[in-house]
Amino acid sequence: MSGTEATNQEPWTILRLLQWTTEHLKKTGSSSPRLDAEVLLAEARKCQRIELYTAFAEEPNEEVKSKFREWIKRRAAGEPVAYLVGKKEFYSLTFHVAKGCLIPRGETEHLIIECLDRAKAIRQTEPSRRLEIADVCTGSGCVAITMAKHLPNASILAIDISTDALAIAQANIDLHQVGETVRLVQRDLLDGVDDNSLDFVLSNPPYVSECEFSNLDKSVRSHEPKIALVSGPSGTEIIERLAAQSANKLRSSGWFLCELSPMIANNVAEILSSSGHWQDVGLVKDLAGLQRLVVARKK
Ligand SMILES: C[S@@+](CC[C@H](N)C(=O)[O-])C[C@H]1O[C@@H](n2cnc3c(N)ncnc32)[C@H](O)[C@@H]1O
């Protein structure tokens, strides 16, 4: 696709571009080279991925090829596909993403599933109650906005400390038109929130330890914001601080649902259980069978 290959007589059809790029990205370390190639080519061509399959023999125009070439160069250097195309799907919704915010992950959809289950149970006994939900460490706003789409008459406070993340979350609130349900604020965790005011605290906080950070995949370590990933020396610092605040901010029987890594899951569950503030402390596994969420109900 570059240098000597560009002079090759064989045309750069969609099929040939995909085949060449898949091999190239495989060699440069992508764990999903074919998918990356398809997503980037579809985006450069402004079409759906599926449409590439019915156009294998077509040769894209120079503008498409040049955009695709630039993205492949950056992808091969480790830049995540979501930052290149500026968007990512989460719980079947599309979100703007950019360097200032973490790219939403599939594992985080468990927060939505667990919260919706509990919210629906509350609705069955108290149908007119307006649920008060805080999404702490909102990043792109994917959790808060998805909840707003599914619980339109809830009141959702979306909190982040990062100005860059807040700007992207605001763009997503506008995109999904949930400004009446989601209120975005810049805070350190739950500082300034009224005591006994919340039904749910949801969070996907930073939970990577300093030491784990150096072992993260290079494309995460070099491109996603460190403030979104690292909690401190042990990885539990932010979750511990958030759990302690949540014990005051939640109403009695309110739920604390927090994403974590399997490395700290048992430790966090033990900290919550022994604090005396929580009942029904449990761990939820993700689709890979790894402990991914801690759930606890305020006594
Ligand atoms: C792991 S990301 C989660 C983003 C988003 N909720 C998601 O699941 O994709 C963590 C977010 O926490 C924010 N953050 C870090 N420390 C914080 C603090 N003390 N108070 C509020 N937000 C914080 C970061 O800016 C980042 O956006």
Characteristic key phrases:
single chain, Rossmann fold, 2 domains, 44% helix, Helicase, Ruva Protein, domain 3
Describe the structure.
The chain is of the alpha/beta class. It folds into two domains: 75 residues, Orthogonal Bundle (Helicase, Ruva Protein, domain 3); 200 residues, Rossmann fold (3-Layer(aba) Sandwich). It contains 13 helices and eleven strands. Strands 5-4-3-6-9-11-10 form a seven-stranded mixed sheet, sandwiched between helices. It has a two-stranded antiparallel ribbon with strand order 1-2. A two-stranded parallel sheet has the order 7-8. Strand 10 and strand 11 form a beta hairpin. Helix 2 packs antiparallel against helix 4. The mean pLDDT is 96. It binds S-adenosylmethionine. The site of S-adenosylmethionine has 22 residues, from helix 7, strand 4 and helix 11.
Radius of gyration: 22 Å
CATH class of the largest domain: Alpha Beta
Total number of distinct structural domains? 2
CATH topology of the largest domain: Rossmann fold
Helix and strand pattern = HHHHHEEHEHEHEEEHHHEHEHEE
Determine the number of helices (DSSP H or I, runs of at least 4 residues).
13
- Write down the overall mean pLDDT: 96
Give the distinct bound molecules.
S-adenosylmethionine
Beta-strand fraction estimate: 15-25%
Low-confidence stretches: none
Cross-sheet strand order for the largest sheet: 5-4-3-6-9-11-10
Helix content: 40-55%
- What is the overall shape? elongated
